[in-house]
Amino acid sequence: MHDCDIDIMAITESWLLPSIPNSFLSVQGYHPIARTDVGDVRKHGVCFYIRDNIPFISIDSNCPNTHIVHLVSLKCYIIVVYRPPSNTQNDNTALINLLEQFCTGKEVLILGDFNLPAVDWSIEDVLFQDYDPLTLAFTNCFNTIGLHQWVDFPTFTSSGNTLDLILSMETDRIGSVESLCPLPGCGHVPIKFTYHFTFNTSQDGNVCIKKRAWERGKYKIIDNHVSQIDWDYEFCHLSVDAKFNRLLQILTPLIDSYIPLCKQLSPSSPLSPPTALKKNRTTAWQLFKSTRRFYGRHSKQCTQALENYNIINRQYRNHFIYSQIAYERTLMDNLKRNPKAFHQYIRNKKVGAPSMGPLSHPDGSLVEDCAAMAEIFVNSFSSVFKDSCPNPFPHQTFQGTLDNVNITYSAVYRP
Questions:
Q1: Contact 88, 134 (CB under 8 A)
Q2: Per-residue pLDDT tens for 236-282?
Q3: How many helices, marked H, and strands, marked E, lie in the chain?
Q4: 189 in a domain, yes or no?
Q5: Whose CA is closest to 1, among 34, 25, 28?
Q6: Domain that holds residue 21
Q7: What residues contact 407, with CB distance under 8 A and at least 6 apart?
């Protein structure tokens, strides 16, 4: 994903089960995976990987093998769909009803494997041909919604059919559409395309989010600044929204000054294959496609080109295995010189929040027990609430006492 500079990846037939936690599927630089599993059925399921600087909300579709995300800042919805051949008539009807009802009045992009092999998307007026009842139901659905399909090349290598579709309501949004090399052991061709938006990242602030190392903040300095602010004066005669905006105006410069940004790690993984191998793999795949198109699928030239591609593809797959072994051996050899790299690698392999702790106890010792760490957090949180102000402003002090205060119902109640 990093090598291809992908912002959003939609995956069909994810084969994910509920027993597989999201921590096993995390990718650096991306939000936690957004997924829809189908019980204990392995060959089903869909999911999204979305860059962590793109805010989104998952929407429940109440339909199996579909997942909907709302790109909040871009005001666009994306639906990933996998329609397995085993779908019943009720399942297909539910999917069609979902698409027709949800797409009304929204900008929607639909991606996925619809398993409609009878449709030849390379011809004109493809939605108005005579098809079997199932295919006709979906093409009528696409035509009713006003969708345009952009993939006009085979996406399933063994049959040469176009099963994976890109359906958009806006015809001026789609840029380039290209096929990538199939992943090892997969018969489908990954599709990469661009979708253009019009927005200003410098003024919005919701698209580009700075990640800060909150654990390294200089909170004593911030506390010193905050304690010298006359909050009664700052919030006087302001509405709730205006108070919140004023609070942000005060805190934002302090955050920029005393909370450092996270270090920008290189997106390339230590396990990434060399550029020459990736280039050879891409070249072999393009050569196979051109040979198949020129000589035919069953020709000797096409068979030889496919065999050459499979040889390079196996080298590409084995590279990750051997690179991981070599990388882990390097971590072990450098354990004494660079223990942080080793422990960070181990933490990424664990489930849950293994990076939490140990915490420093007020007595100076380090605490790793979960209950003791929770108690430290509680005490730290409660410490911000004080019975008295050490340096009060004049209008915040009162030397007298309140006696004989009588609060009546009629004085409080406002009909």
A1: no
A2: 888 887 888 888 888 888 888 888 887 654 444 455 667 788 888 88
A3: 11, 13
A4: yes
A5: 28
A6: 8-201
A7: none
